[in-house]
Design brief:
- Residues 112-189 form the Beta-ketoacyl-[acyl-carrier-protein] synthase III N-terminal domain.
- Keywords: Acyltransferase, Cytoplasm, Fatty acid biosynthesis, Fatty acid metabolism, Lipid biosynthesis, Lipid metabolism, Multifunctional enzyme, Transferase.
- Pfam families: ACP_syn_III, ACP_syn_III_C.
- GO terms for molecular function: 3-oxoacyl-[acyl-carrier-protein] synthase activity; beta-ketoacyl-acyl-carrier-protein synthase III activity.
- It is built from ten helices and 15 strands.
- It starts with a strand and ends with a strand.
- Helix content is 33%, strand content 26%.
- It is an alpha+beta fold.
- Helix 3 crosses helix 4 (96-103).
- The protein folds into two domains: 3-175, 3-Layer(aba) Sandwich (Peroxisomal Thiolase, Chain A, domain 1), CATH 3.40.47.10; 180-323, Peroxisomal Thiolase, Chain A, domain 1, CATH 3.40.47.10.
- The protein has helices at residues 20-28, 36-43, 57-72, 96-103, 120-133, 157-160, 216-238, 255-264, 276-279, 286-296; strands spanning 3-12, 17-19, 47-49, 81-85, 111-114, 139-147, 165-175, 180-187, 195-196, 200-202, 205-207, 213-214, 247-250, 305-312, 316-323.
- Bound molecules: acetyl coenzyme *A (ACO).
- Acetyl coenzyme *A binds next to helix 2, helix 6, helix 7 and strand 14.
């Protein structure tokens, strides 16, 4: 049989680190009030990174990809599939993936974006796994990359304190032993209004509001339940139980959602990988960023079983169980 396995991870954060205190001071200058205490208590976020104005998702993603390639001992020329999960692509088209491919100095292999907002990475990993198992690819780069700072309204304190920029990547290769054990993806478009950027381009203009809009409490209420269901589905599909999970690596949106999911899966909190404190919510980039941080710090080791799970705009959600 043919399976896929992660053979290398990498990530990249833009250098500018903005603490809650820095952000509070910046917002205060616009008459918007917030505080480190409020942000830490409600979300667990202490700092985030923001890209400079000329840096795009393909720039951040290319750097994360180079690091993942190095970790896997692969050259970009060996890659035969590139998938980028992003909701903040460089342009309306072409895809960030096509632009990123060129930045890696290669050409020819298929490259495309997956748009599932904060569930983007679990969607992209599932697509790459399916393409590898069917034989249409053998060495894939799967990347999550975002510049959410571009779509934040810094006059809206209920959203602008939550998000950050960054990228994470994995190299996924064909293997005789299973790495991706199971995945479970969902969407329900009736919830479009609780988390969206309604703006678009038409007639040469931006039409509608091009800022992120979120009903935080509605998102919160939906998130914990669907994440538990998706996690249980991948356990069942792979014949595993909660006790087999070495690390829970959820989308890093809010520490309370993450702890709520860990509790529902009866996992001790020390099995939860947390980077939201330093990264904020980086949407499709958050899971591969957290994975790479956990690999490089020595937490996640070869052979560990990882539960990756994401939830986001759409509404979309899903989980992937991985033998690392
Ligand atoms: N600083 C200070 N006060 C604030 C801020 C802020 N940044 N933001 C809101 N407040 C105030 C509100 O105005 C409100 O004041 P009021 O009571 O006087 O009206 C008070 O704080 C409480 O606001 P709530 O919205 O009720 O706060 P809540 O406890 O629900 O926390 C939060 C808000 C953190 C957004 C929470 O709802 C949440 O985490 N939701 C999930 C969001 C999420 O995870 N989204 C991402 C998932 S999908 C994706 O990643 C794209």
């Amino acid at each position: 049989s043919r399976y896929s396995r992660i053979t290398g991870t990498g990530s990249f954060l833009p250098p500018r680190r903005v603490t809650n205190a820095d952000l509070a001071a910046q917002l205060a200058a616009n008459g918007v009030e917030t505080s480190d205490d409020w942000i830490v208590e409600r979300t667990g976020i202490r700092a985030r990174h923001f890209a400079e104005a000329d840096v795009t998702s393909s720039d951040l993603g290319a750097e994360a990809a180079r690091r993942a390639l190095q970790a896997a001992g692969r050259d970009a020329a060996e890659i035969d599939l590139i998938i980028v999960a992003t909701s903040t692509p460089d342009m309306v088209f072409p895809s960030a993936a096509a632009i990123l491919q060129h930045k890696l100095g290669v050409a020819g292999c298929p490259a495309f974006d997956v748009q599932a907002v904060c569930s983007g990475f679990v969607y992209a990993l599932t697509v790459a796994d399916a393409m590898i198992r069917t034989g249409s690819a053998s060495k894939a780069l799967v990347i999550g990359s975002e510049v959410f700072s571009r779509i934040l309204d810094f006059k809206d304190r209920t959203t602008c304190v939550l998000f950050g920029d960054g990228a994470g990547a994995v190299v996924l290769e064909a293997s005789e032993t299973p790495g991706i054990l199971a995945s479970d993806l969902h969407a329900d478009g009736k919830h479009v209004g609780i988390l969206c950027v309604p703006g678009n381009v038409s007639g040469g203009e931006v039409t509608g509001r091009a800022f992120l809009h979120m009903d935080g409490q509605a998102v919160f209420r939906l998130a914990v339940g669907v994440l538990e269901k998706a996690a249980r589905a991948v356990l069942e599909k792979s014949g595993k139980t909660e006790a087999d999970i070495d690390w829970l690596i959820p989308h890093q949106a809010n520490i309370r959602i993450m702890q709520g999911t860990a509790k529902k899966l009866k996992l001790p909190m020390d099995k939860l990988v947390v980077t939201v404190d330093e990264h904020g919510n980086t949407s499709a980039a958050s899971i591969p960023l957290a994975l790479d941080a956990a690999v490089r710090s020595g937490k996640v080791k070869k052979g560990d079983t990882l539960m990756l799970e994401g939830v986001g705009g759409g509404f979309t959600w899903g989980a992937v169980l991985v033998d690392f």
